[in-house]
Amino acid sequence: MAVSYTAVVDVDGEGRNGGRARSSDGLLEATLAIPKELGGAGDSTNPEQLLAAGWAACFLGALRRAAAARRIRLTSTTITAAITLTHGDDGEFALSARLDPVLGGVDQATAEELAQAAHQICPYSKAMRGNVPVTVHATAAA
Predict the structure, then answer these.
(1) Which residues contact 142 (CB under 8 A, 6 or more apart)?
(2) pLDDT by residue (tens digit) across 1-28?
(3) Is 76 exposed, middle or buried (0-12, 13-18, 19+ CB in 10 A)?
(4) Which of 53, 59, 54, 63 lies closest to 7, judged by CA?
């Protein structure tokens, strides 16, 4: 398989607790902080937010691709991605995800079909499959 693109990001410091993330091209630069809900300062972004942003953006691209393959014209696309960090009784951390795309220009059945198709072709969804519980709930825009 040919390489299309490789993103390179360096993180220093204490990672999610006050570290800094910087992309090699300089376009991403973020301070990291533990969320208030986990006892941190919550004054900067965190890895779960970054994962949600990347996955949501990729998923919308996959939705557009699935629609184009079916010759369906979408009038709008938005998505809410929620990444949940859980802490089990065994002391281990785990992730779960919910993707809620809203598609304009289609009925509910088509929105659901396109979301399931996108979930099969989105690289983030593929990477998480079998590792992270994912719920996809599509809605047709009114």
Answers:
(1) none
(2) 788 999 999 999 888 899 999 999 999 9
(3) exposed
(4) 54
